[in-house]
Structure formats: C-alpha cells, structure tokens
Specification:
This protein has 201 residues and is mainly α. The chain has one domain. Helices cover 79% and strands 0% of the residues. Helix 1 runs antiparallel to helix 2 and helix 3 runs antiparallel to helix 4. The chain is globular, with a radius of gyration of 16 Å. The termini are far apart.
C-alpha cells in the first residue's frame, strides 16, 4: 500500500512539529524530564520520517514495537518525574523494566502470550498515565487548562497503538488499509496535541 500526497503532507507536518518541540524543548524543568520529553518527541520525528521515506511497510518491522514503546514510556516518565515527586523512583524502575521486557520478548521468538501481555501492561500503564495525569492537573488548576491537550494526545496515541497491536495479532479492529489511511492523521493530531499542551500549558 503506497503513500498518497495527503499522507506525505500529514507526515511532513508531524515531523516539523516534533522537530520544533525537540529544538525548543521545555524550559524550567530538571534534566531527566527534559531528556525524557526530548526522546519521546525525537522518536515521533523518526517515526514520521521513516514512514514518509519507506512507506507503510515500515510499520511491519519488529523494531516498531520497541520504538512505539519508547514514546509512551518516555513521555509518561517525564510527566511523573515533574508532577508526582513521590513516585519518581518507582516509575523510573517501571520504565526501565518495561522497556527491557518489551525488547527481550520481541528479540527472542516466543509462541506463548507473554510478549502480548508484557506489551499490553507496559503500554497500558504508560498510556493511562499520559492520558489521565495532564487532564487531572489541568482540572485541578495545577497546570493551565491547555495542558489537558497532552492528555488528549495520549489518548490518540493509545488508539493508534491499539489499532496496530490488534492488527499485528491478527485480530484487527479495522481493516489494514483503513488503519494505514488513518495512521498519518492520527500521528499528526497526536503530535499537535502534545506540542500544544506543552507550549500553552
């Protein structure tokens, strides 16, 4: 399935937004959350460029699972480190173990359900953190209301991950063609929400 001109335009804007956030950064934060956010947006940038250059076929590569895990883990770590000080160490340990577990279960062929369980747990916890924490902070008044856009972006990237995961497991929610057509738009909306939340929130 080939990229059309609209797909390429959406991916280009995604790459531009992600590169803007990587270059501008987020001021006034400690080193770890800045690093975590930079890695998250850097992977978004790489993902958009890889699809732009290589096409949708790149989503079939095993490394995509690993790269797609880094995004929610790094962004959620930055959020927890910056806003939930008492959970910093515990969440950092979860992030490291989760990433290593996903990498290990994808590097070694397994016929059982362990890779799916590990992926679901890792994505589930990090995804819910990105989705709920920014919205909660915005509602509570601890952050400006636009910070809730980060949570919306978390929800969107969760939907994208869910669609790809079920497709990989052979139980697609939507047809492969429809998922591929939705993916560039979903990636752009996700990145736009993240950037809007961090810049205005």
């Amino acid at each position: 399935m080939k990229l059309n001109s609209l797909d390429r335009t959406l991916l280009l804007f995604t790459a531009l937004l992600a590169s803007y956030q990587v270059s501008e950064g987020i001021e006034g934060l400690a080193t770890l959350p800045v690093t975590a956010y930079t890695i998250g947006f850097g992977i978004l940038l790489i993902a958009a460029l890889l699809i732009f250059i290589l096409g949708f076929e790149v989503l079939d590569l095993p490394i995509v699972f690993i790269l797609s895990t880094i995004i929610p883990l790094s962004l959620s770590l930055g959020l927890v480190w910056n806003h939930l000080a008492s959970f910093r160490t515990a969440y950092l340990i979860f992030t490291i173990i989760g990433f290593l577990a996903v990498t290990f279960t994808r590097a070694i062929p397994m016929t059982n359900k362990m890779p799916v369980i590990i992926l679901a747990l890792t994505h589930g916890i990090s995804g819910l953190t990105i989705f709920l924490l920014p919205i909660f902070l915005a509602i509570q008044g601890d952050m400006k209301l636009p910070f809730a856009f980060v949570g919306i972006g978390g929800g969107l990237i969760g939907i994208g991950g869910l669609l790809l995961s079920f497709l990989k497991m052979g139980k697609p929610i939507l047809s492969r063609e429809r998922i591929m057509r939705l993916f560039p738009l979903l990636l752009l909306l996700t990145t736009a929400c993240f950037v809007a939340g961090f810049v205005w929130g």
